[in-house]
Write a structure and sequence with these properties.
Blueprint lengths: L15 H22 L3 E3 L4 E3 L4 H12 L3 H21 L4 H20 L4 H14 L6 H7 L5 H17 L8 H21 L6 H12 L2 H10 L3 H15 L4 H17 L3 H14 L3 H12 L4 H14 L30 H10 L3 H8 L14 H8 L4 H16 L4 H18 L5 H14 L4 H10 L12
Antiparallel strand pairs: 1-2
Helix pairs in contact: 1-2, 1-3, 2-3, 2-4, 3-4, 4-6, 5-6, 5-7, 7-8, 8-9, 9-10, 10-11, 10-12, 11-12, 12-13, 13-14, 14-15, 16-17, 18-19, 19-20, 20-22
């Protein structure tokens, strides 16, 4: 963004008012420089900090703009972005800086609109700011680029961005993912400029070239599908899956989802279900199980598919390798599935038993959870207790008590309060069973075991409806 010379840069014929403006610009430039150089102090122990205050800079920029000096405001805005970006990069917690700098940008956008630059130069100025922005400082300029501007300006900008895109090459030793991300971002804005310039016919050819350059097959497939060019979309989806396999799992998953959408549009429900099953095998989840059920229910194939999915989760035998597998080939390479040593997948089997409202199976698999390691941390014990409550209230109470004791062991006031929620639930089940004395003994045992945890004792007092005695602060 080259600095444009203005009338204030020429010393001849300046009025006293002009000299005042020059002084204001100089003061603002110094304040921006000082703010950018000011260290951000943060006290992690007390949660306190000190960040530069950009509100005064914003007020002075507005005053300068109101005086009719838009070009000077733009120049200062560029310096502010540079200083603010540097400060964000060097800061431990940059939230306040980001908000302060971003808060000045609407003034710069107004200056851009009022500047003496040609429309295409304004667009290019805003585009440069957006493309260089790594910290969400320039969202006001992104909004500017979604406003209405002359078609001729968009046309010229599209040509500029195309030139930048086609000449873009990764530097030696550069991060490949970072380069692809930046280039895809430039490509998205190039497409935006083409759309505004009524050059839609050039967009898909550009997406085809970029898909091969950066692996952006998902964007290409989406454009082809929107244009009802489904056969081409399928061809590119298949190429994209082959090209990105093992490198960019997110892209591959997005392409598989688009192929599933195409098959659903064709009402080819068995293949839709087969694709969904492959996704479930790749990443088992309760949502994936429900999606498999929805897909196969369209042709009454769920019972057999369900049995094969459960066999996979229990023993690791891939569904399509089981006898009597009912679904057709998808035409895609099959996922390998999980490692053999994780079977049975107890977490997933518990979730499925809860989905199917089978409390007996929930408890059966819950009892097989490893009590050490990482295999069961993703489970919500409150959800499990609630699922088995009607079937086995004693087990529900035991699960709530166990969870409360785990929280108490964390020795924090917040954990004590969370523990109290589970103890209340357990107590509500015990009371109707005329086992109040047993429950009182349990709470008394907690009191004796954790007598030194004063905050916990206060919370237990509250559970029993006892008045809470003021004590000195403690654990």
């Amino acid at each position: 963004m080259p600095r444009k010379k203005t009338r204030l840069d020429r010393s001849a014929d300046l009025t006293w008012n002009d000299l005042e403006i020059i002084a204001l610009v100089d003061r603002l430039r110094k304040e921006i420089r000082d703010s950018g150089d000011e260290p951000v102090r943060q006290n992690d122990w007390q949660g306190e900090g000190c960040s530069p205050d950009y509100s005064e800079i914003r007020s002075k920029l507005k005053k300068l703009l109101d005086a009719g000096h838009a070009d000077e405001v733009l120049t200062l805005g560029e310096e502010l972005l540079s200083a603010g970006t540097r400060q964000v990069e060097e800061s431990h917690d940059a939230t306040e800086i980001q908000m302060g700098v971003a808060g000045c940008m609407p003034v710069i956008v107004k200056a851009l609109d009022q500047s003496s630059m040609a429309p295409v130069v304004r667009l290019a100025w805003a585009m440069d700011a957006v493309l260089k922005d790594k910290y969400r400082l320039c969202e006001a300029f992104a909004e500017y680029l979604y406003r209405k501007h002359p078609n001729a300006a968009w046309d010229a900008l599209a040509d500029q961005l195309l030139t930048r895109l086609t000449s873009s090459k990764p530097t030696k030793g550069a991060d490949h993912f970072g380069y692809n991300f930046a280039r895809d971002r430039l490509g998205d804005w190039t497409i935006h400029a083409m759309e505004r310039a009524n050059r839609s016919g050039e967009i898909i050819p550009l997406c085809e070239a970029e898909a091969k350059a950066t692996g952006s097959y998902d964007r290409l497939a989406e454009r082809l599908m929107a244009a009802d060019r489904y056969e081409e979309a399928e061809r590119w989806i298949e190429e994209g899956i082959r090209s990105t396999k093992g490198k960019w799992s997110g892209i591959e998953a997005g392409l598989r989802e688009k192929l599933r959408h195409i098959r659903a549009r064709q009402k080819n429900w068995p293949v839709v279900a087969a694709i969904q099953v492959e996704e479930f095998v790749h990443q088992p989840s309760r949502r994936g199980f429900v999606e498999c059920r929805k897909a196969t229910n369209r042709f009454n194939g769920w019972d057999k598919v369900r049995a094969c999915l459960l066999e996979y989760l229990e023993k690791g035998v891939l569904p399509w390798k089981q006898k009597g597998w009912p679904l057709p080939e998808t035409g895609l390479e099959k996922p390998e599935g999980a490692r053999k040593d994780v079977f049975p997948m107890v977490n997933e089997l518990i979730h499925i038993a809860m989905i199917e409202k089978n409390p007996e199976q929930v408890l059966s698999w819950y009892d097989r959870l490893p009590r050490k390691g990482f295999g069961w941390y993703g489970l919500n014990k409150d959800e499990i207790a609630t699922a088995v409550l009607t079937h086995s209230p004693d087990r529900a109470v035991a699960i709530w008590k166990k969870r409360a004791e785990e929280l108490i062991a964390q020795v924090t006031p917040g954990a004590y309060r969370d523990a109290a929620k589970y103890l209340r639930k357990a107590g509500a089940i015990i009371a109707p069973q005329n086992r109040a004395k047993q429950w009182d003994r349990y709470l008394q045992g907690l009191r004796e075991k954790h007598a030194r945890k004063r905050r916990l004792i206060e919370i237990l007092d509250g559970l029993e409806g006892k008045p809470i005695v003021k004590r000195k602060s403690g654990r």
